[in-house]
Design brief:
Strand order of the largest sheet of chain C: 1-2-3
Helix content of chain B: 55-70%
Helix content of chain C: 40-55%
Strand content of chain C: 5-15%
Chains: A alpha/beta (158), B mainly alpha (349), C alpha+beta (383)
Structural class of chain B: mainly alpha
Distance between the termini of chain B: 32 Å
Number of strands of chain C: 8
Distance between the termini of chain C: 42 Å
Largest interface: A-C, 33 and 39 residues
Radius of gyration of chain C: 21 Å
Mean pLDDT of chain B: 83
Radius of gyration of chain B: 21 Å
Strand content of chain B: under 5%
Order of helices and strands of chain C: EEEHHHHHEEHHHHHHEEEHHHH
Low-confidence stretches of chain B: none
Order of helices and strands of chain B: HHHHHHHHHHHHH
Number of helices of chain C: 15
Shape of chain C: globular
Number of helices of chain B: 13
Oligomer: heterotrimer
Low-confidence stretches of chain C: 1-5
Largest sheet of chain C: 3 strands, antiparallel
Chain lengths: 158, 349, 383
């Protein structure tokens, strides 16, 4: 199934929640969705018989300078098709429903996105830092991140 | 006193006793060096490498270097440890191993103490090691050590049962607990060894399978008692770091190390005495006598030391529950069966 | 005994204190600086909480400050025991974006290097897995053979562990004249040793007892957790990117996708994950033999390398089948010389996340083996 067909199916089922389909080679095609019902969209993508996206390849947080984003890359082991879903978030309100109950692999990825970008996944059972120390301040992968001068008395920039 | 040539050599009893007790200690020290080198060289042979080559020709001084290194190292006592027990544990373990040498008959003319309950003594003293292990493990105040000590306690207690029954069976067959008499009962050609059913007519062919399986049972249980691979669970390196001796360093670690090697020899000597005719020559009178007896005894015992090293570098490790399963559900029932069959044979003989 | 070897830890009436043990970050078998917070009921594991990040160096932030080719050495240091494989999806992604056509010879050399590195990686995985079970000797046999592979890599790239060999559009250097013969020598040696390892370790009774029915990962759970590579295939899912979406020139070769069959236990146990690696070494040998036979002798490996890598605006996700699983790079470009975002799909990171799920109810000795069977490398987890 091509990405365009997947987009059409999603558009039929969710209407306003699905904003746009973009495909400009050589870039990968992607679908832009609204954040409010992303968990339902994901559940639909996983459970719909003709889609069967049982495999979350990658969940990445993004910083588009003026906005934050979450990118879901999905794959179906059965039909061997891929799709990328993008969600944009306002920097003032970086909240998005969690998908960890849909794909368990999202658990650590969401923790990483929180750690690196400060994106809050609402409903996540254990949203704590994963790569940085638990008491680290700030979210390092934000484009405007300033490295702290010291951490527990250790000089950070070298 | 006829079993001790030193009494005849030295007329003064006090000096003789000191000499007799020192002789095994010297032997243990030399043996430990040889065993360490053997371990290194056999391991490197198994693994297709050279092993230590720099210290002396073919690295034969390596064990000395190792011992010097261990003695030089800082002796650390963790601040949260129970200091008295912590410091005592390695020595207790070594005492256990060394005390066993008191009754080991190296030759028809030399056994440090020819007591009538030698077998019993050897077995009792062998269980001494567990006190050291549990003490060290508990006093270290380390969770890995505690786990190791717990594992060790359960392991040694479990394996003493099949080993004990094996000893009992041999005692029943020989009709004595005295080690010298036990060996004398196996004199003659090698088919008189208890491994092959002991002295007797051709009808002993029926008892042969039982003595042979008894030998295997004893070999396995004694491996488990010395905490060697595949039963090195108490110090299972990949799981609980080093088990009961995680916190030990320097000379105290060396004592544990030493005790392990001494125990290896004690176990091998016990197997030799019980099943392979001790100091008896395998070929009747050929190369017999007290002096060749020492040779035969040490050769046989070293063979089993070699077997232990060989197994260590070949086999993976068992898991705790599998170890218990093997002891209680395999070895114990079979050892009872052997006990029954061999006792029946001993009665009918 | 129940079908699953999992031990029920409800002791009725026996009140024991649970013990919390820190396994790591310094521990002989956590394969690096991984810390596992383990709750024990006697010997039985009731809870595992992995704490990672001890080796974190923020690769993604580094990458944003580098030009595209400068990122490659950092990628080497992610999964540092299969660096050749790591570089591949990254350079493939950029080549796709820039529409660079790479010479035939380069494809073959890349493929041979990747397969050799797959063998080297699986050798380490099997060796350390055996070491976790207490078998030291197979460890040295496998490391001895790995040296042969590293020697070849050293000759072609100058590095034994971190190669920086693939570059956008080609390769850093051409291979040396006897490269093909050396590859075939390695294949022969690997086959001989693997036969020995099969007898000495894999089918050893104690080893089978230790690993079969331990750490069972059901196929659906493996997919839901996003596992890939031998962990996913060990659970019986025949998913291999080389076969399902053949990248590069993998469609020209004849090889089988190895899956766990539950030969000695249950499908998806630790033994299955291990046997998949053993069999994959053989498959890699087959691929190398075919590739060496087909590889063109002439050609310039650096003819397609662009002077300056300028990636058009856009984004791409490109993945390859690494020894440990699917390694992908999600690269976002804003049209400049530096990437806007390089987001790796870190295989070990995702594979490790399944550990708490599959290790509960086994013993602490099993926990170590389960961890070993997942085959993680902390450089990739912490990035």
């Amino acid at each position: 199934m091509t990405e365009k067909e997947i987009y059409d199916i999603l558009k039929d089922s969710f209407g306003e929640e699905i904003i746009e389909f973009a495909h400009e080679p050589p870039s990968d095609p992607f679908i832009i969705a609204n954040r409010s019902k992303i968990d339902e969209i994901c559940l639909f993508l996983r459970d719909a018989d003709e889609l069967d996206f049982d495999y979350l390849v990658l969940l990445s947080g993004m910083d588009y300078i003026e906005k934050l984003g979450v990118v879901y890359q999905l794959y179906s082991l059965k039909y061997k098709h891929r799709i990328t879903i993008k969600v944009f978030l306002e920097k003032s309100d970086p909240n998005i429903p969690t998908v960890e109950k849909i794909w368990r692999s999202a658990d650590w990825h969401e923790r990483e996105a929180w750690d690196m970008y400060g994106i809050v996944f609402q409903g996540h059972h254990n949203l704590i830092r994963i790569l940085c120390p638990y008491d680290w301040e700030g979210h390092p992968l934000l484009k405007d991140y300033k490295t702290p001068d010291e951490y527990h008395g250790i000089k950070v920039p070298y | 006193m006829e079993h001790n040539f030193i009494y005849n050599l030295i007329n003064n009893e006090v000096i003789a006793i000191i000499a007799i007790s020192l002789l095994p200690l010297i032997f243990v020290l030399i043996y430990a060096l040889i065993a360490i080198l053997g371990e290194l060289k056999i391991a490197s042979f198994v693994q297709e490498r050279l092993g230590p080559m720099r210290t002396g020709p073919w690295g034969i001084i390596q064990p000395v270097a190792e011992v010097v290194k261990l003695i030089q190292k800082e002796d650390i006592t963790p601040s949260a440890a129970d200091k008295k027990l912590f410091n005592m544990a390695p020595y207790i373990m070594f005492i256990g191993a060394y005390a066993a040498f008191a009754v080991i008959p190296f030759s028809s003319a030399f056994v440090p103490a020819n007591i009538n309950v030698g077998l019993f003594f050897l077995f009792a003293v062998g269980a001494f090691a567990i006190i050291g292990i549990v003490m060290g493990g508990w006093a270290s105040n380390n969770k890995y050590s505690l786990l190791g000590a717990m594992r060790s306690a359960s392991q040694i207690i479990s394996y003493e049962i099949p080993a004990g029954i094996a000893l009992l069976t041999i005692a029943a067959l020989a009709g004595t607990l005295n080690l010298q008499e036990l060996i004398e009962a196996q004199s003659g050609w090698f088919w008189n060894w208890f491994l092959f059913g002991g002295d007797g007519s051709v009808w002993k062919i029926f008892v042969l399978p039982f003595t042979f399986s008894l030998f295997l049972i004893f070999l396995v249980s004694s491996l488990a008692e010395t905490n060697r691979t595949p039963f090195d669970i108490p110090e299972g390196e990949s799981e609980i770091v080093a088990g009961y001796h995680t916190e030990y360093s320097g000379i105290k670690f060396a004592m544990f190390f030493f005790a392990e090697y001494a125990n290896m020899f004690v176990i091998s000597a016990l197997i030799t005495i019980l099943f392979l005719g001790g100091w008896n020559s395998p070929f009747g009178e050929f190369l017999g006598g007290p002096i060749w007896g020492v040779f035969w005894f040490i050769i046989k015992a070293f063979f089993f030391v070699f077997v232990q090293i060989w197994l260590r570098w070949t086999l993976p490790r068992l898991r705790v529950d599998q170890l218990m399963y093997m002891s209680w559900k395999v070895l114990v029932p079979f050892s009872f069966l052997c006990f029954f069959a061999i006792s029946l044979w001993a009665m009918l003989k | 005994m129940s079908e699953r070897r999992r031990i029920e830890f409800e002791y009725s009436g026996v009140d024991t204190e649970r013990m919390r043990v820190n396994v790591g970050p310094q521990h002989p078998s956590t394969h690096g600086v991984l810390r596992l917070e383990v709750e024990l009921e006697g010997e039985i594991v009731t809870e595992v909480i992995p704490h990672i990040g001890y080796l974190h160096r923020c690769f993604e932030k580094h990458a944003e400050a580098m030009t595209y080719p400068q990122v490659i050495p950092y990628i080497d240091r992610m999964d540092y025991i299969s660096s050749m494989n790591n570089e591949w999806p990254y350079v493939m992604a950029i080549e796709k974006m820039c529409d660079i056509k790479i010479p035939e010879k380069v494809e073959y050399i890349r493929l041979i290097c990747a397969e050799l590195n797959r063998i080297a990686n699986h050798q380490i995985a099997v060796a350390t897995f055996g070491l976790d079970a207490g078998a030291f000797t197979p460890f040295l046999y496998l490391f001895r053979d790995r040296e042969w592979i590293l020697n070849v890599f050293e000759t072609i790239s100058g590095g034994r562990l971190l190669y920086n060999y693939y570059c956008v559009g080609g390769l850093r250097n051409d291979v040396y004249p006897t490269f093909k013969e050396d590859c075939l020598d390695i294949v022969r040696q690997v086959r001989a040793t693997n036969k020995e390892i099969m007898d000495l370790l894999v089918y050893n009774y104690i080893f089978v007892e230790r690993t079969a029915k331990v750490g069972v990962l059901p196929p659906d759970v493996a997919i839901n957790y996003g596992c890939s590579g031998p962990v996913l295939r060990g659970s019986g899912n025949a998913f291999d990117l080389r076969r399902s979406e053949p990248y590069s020139i993998y469609d020209r070769f004849d090889f089988d996708v190895q899956i766990g069959k539950g030969e000695v236990g249950i499908v998806g146990d630790s033994w299955d994950r291990n046997i998949v690696r053993m069999n994959e070494m053989e498959e890699s040998c087959k691929i190398i033999e075919q590739a060496v036979a087909q590889m063109p002798n002439t050609g310039d490996v650096s003819e397609a390398i662009p002077k300056k890598v300028r990636v058009p605006k856009g984004e791409i996700y490109c993945s390859a089948e690494n020894p440990k699983g699917e390694l992908g790079f999600y690269i976002v470009s804003d049209g400049g010389q530096k990437p806007f975002r390089v987001r790796p799909r870190a295989t070990s990171f995702i594979n490790l996340s399944v550990l708490p799920e599959i290790s509960k109810g086994y013993m602490i000795a099993d926990l170590v083996l389960i961890l070993g069977s997942i085959d993680i490398v902390l450089g990739e987890i912490d990035r």
